[in-house]
Specification:
33% helix; alpha/beta; SHC Adaptor Protein; 8 strands; 4-stranded mixed sheet; 171 residues; Double Stranded RNA Binding Domain; 2 domains
Length: 171
């Protein structure tokens, strides 16, 4: 986890930077996927603004807090960020859990599709263009054919994206 601390409109003491770094490094114990943390401490008219930008893959987090002094602003922003991280961790854990698969009932076992054998299927001799035109003009899912002069079987099929696919079968 890369930690960057930036100050705006004021010089921040090394002690305050270490305090902020200590508060931020605690975040990696909550969510280990944090790649980068940026703490910005800004001096305003009436106090300090602390902002934390957390880079967690697919879940960037941005938190702000104001206080009269820098240390309380860091405490407040760390508390908010920790709360957001715990919420994110819970959400990630819930999405990873999967419900156990139910036991198949006897009715479901009987509903397995039956294999029905077709007798007397005739393989036609067609060119690739004729086969694709025949597929486009019908609602068939596939067509088995041979090209003239070629004894290999070819299967032209309708893909899920609406296009046609071609499989050449080897002997």
């Amino acid at each position: 986890m890369q930690v960057t601390i930036t100050s705006r409109h004021a010089e921040i003491s090394e002690q305050t930077r270490d305090y902020g770094r200590k508060k931020i490094e605690h975040f990696s114990q909550i969510v280990s996927e944090i790649t980068e943390v940026h703490l910005v401490i800004e001096k305003e008219k009436r106090g300090f603004l602390a902002e934390v930008n957390l880079l967690v893959p697919r879940h960037p987090i941005n938190v702000r807090a104001r206080a009269p002094e820098a240390a309380p602003a860091i405490d407040a922003v760390a508390k908010k960020a920790e709360r957001r991280l715990r919420k994110l961790k819970t959400r990630i854990e819930k999405s990873r859990k999967q419900a156990p698969l139910p036991e198949p009932s006897p009715e479901a076992i009987e509903e397995v599709p039956k294999l029905i054998r077709e007798e007397g299927f005739l393989v036609k001799t067609l060119t690739e263009r004729e086969a694709s035109l025949r597929m486009r003009g019908s609602n068939l899912n596939f067509l088995i054919y041979r090209e003239p002069g070629d004894r290999r079987l070819k299967v032209i099929y309708r893909r899920r994206d609406g296009n046609l696919g071609l499989i050449e079968l080897e002997d």
